[in-house]
Design brief:
alpha/beta; Rossmann fold; SH3 type barrels; Elongation Factor Tu (Ef-tu), domain 3; 3 domains; six-stranded antiparallel beta barrel; five-stranded parallel beta sheet; globular
């Protein structure tokens, strides 16, 4: 049994609790860290729960106040995305710039060999190359495909993967609940939010109106693709590509087709066919191996949103280093939103991902 140090990100929830408990059972010298990311009742409850969980496991808990960093790197990124007319994915950015970044920095200070999280994902050590084989770490989807969170981890690099552990990745959620009971998980429950954590239960529309200024949340014209005036919108920040609800237009259904930020115009269509795309551009692409693979597998699939079904796609390098790629899906995808993540898979391995560009083809 190992006595190596492992630093676990403790959220106060069941998944991080079991992750820490499993590592402790395996013989790791476990300590935990709670990241204070924003103010409010929910954050305070989570911190209290994290303290109770650490106490139950008899491990040290360090509190990191990262509210300023979180606002700068995640909340501002989120708001700036909506200013540009795109649909940002804050969880992806938070994982890279906040959670894993500060976990690694704290682990180095504490001289911990590993960091660990309660993400439903897995990693695998492998060799690539023939003449001089190179050791790499692959990022794999979780055993529980319904809970798999690898989609949100596509920006991780080899340095991080080398030092990270995903203790619950080989279990289903049902199995985790049983383990939590066996490990004596304290009698409390955190509601799992379906929205960004910093909304703190507030509706997205209200949050955007309260935090965005300028024309982004001011009323403007709604036009068809042909330029016909249909009515007024309540602010471009409140709409995303493919949206149907909240348009309040007659002779529908109508769908959001595009947003003209400069002119404050919402462009709509009454044909679903207009929302389908076969080709998209991915920018700021990150490859888990560190660079564009020398040989791409033939059967690559991609997802354009977390709950999207992975679909067959061909992938072509546009820039020299593979940071910009052209993707062509075998079957068209509906409501492709700029700013969202497109993630590439080969079977259960996550190869990489990128940001869907405004340049939709």
């Amino acid at each position: 049994m190992t006595k190596e140090k492992a630093l676990v990100a403790m959220s106060g929830g069941i998944d991080s609790f079991v992750a820490a408990a499993l590592l402790k059972k395996r013989g790791f010298n476990v300590s935990a860290v709670f990241m204070r990311l924003y103010d409010g009742k929910i954050s305070k409850e989570q911190e209290t729960f994290a303290k109770k969980a650490a106490l139950r496991l008899n491990i040290n808990l360090l509190i990191l106040d990262l509210r300023k960093e979180f606002k700068k790197e995640v909340v501002n990124y989120f708001l700036n995305g909506y200013k540009k007319g795109i649909t940002p994915n804050p969880c992806v950015v938070c994982n890279k710039k906040i959670k894993f970044n500060y976990l690694l920095k704290t682990a180095e200070k504490l001289e911990a060999a590993f960091i660990a999280t309660g993400h439903y994902a897995r990693k695998k050590k492998a060799k690539i190359g023939n003449k001089k084989p190179k050791t790499i770490y692959k990022l794999l989807a979780a055993k529980d495909r319904e809970k798999d969170q690898s989609y949100f981890l596509w920006q991780l690099d080899q340095k991080t993967l080398k030092n990270v552990l995903f203790p619950i990745g080989k279990y289903t959620k049902k199995e985790i609940k049983k383990l939590a009971k066996n490990f004596g998980f304290p009698a409390f429950k955190i509601k799992e939010s379906q929205n960004a954590c910093f909304l703190k239960g507030e509706k997205l529309e209200a949050f955007l109106k309260n935090n965005l200024k300028g024309t982004f949340c001011r009323p403007g014209r709604i036009l068809t693709r042909e330029g016909k005036l249909l009515g007024k919108h309540q602010g471009l920040c409140l709409y995303t590509i493919g949206q149907r609800k909240g348009l309040y237009l007659s002779k529908g259904p109508w769908y959001v087709f595009a947003k003209d930020i400069e002119k404050n115009i919402l462009v709509v269509t009454n044909s679903k066919k207009d929302l389908w795309r076969k080709k998209i551009i991915a920018k700021n692409v990150n490859w888990i191996q560190g660079k564009f693979p020398e040989k791409l597998p033939k059967d690559i699939k991609a997802k354009i949103r977390y709950r999207d079904k992975a679909s067959k796609v061909s992938l072509e390098k546009v820039s020299k280093k593979g940071k910009v790629c052209l993707l062509e899906f075998k079957e068209a995808k509906q409501a492709v939103a700029s700013g969202q993540s497109v993630v590439f898979y080969h079977k259960n391995e996550l190869l990489g991902g990128g940001i869907i560009s405004n340049n939709l083809l």
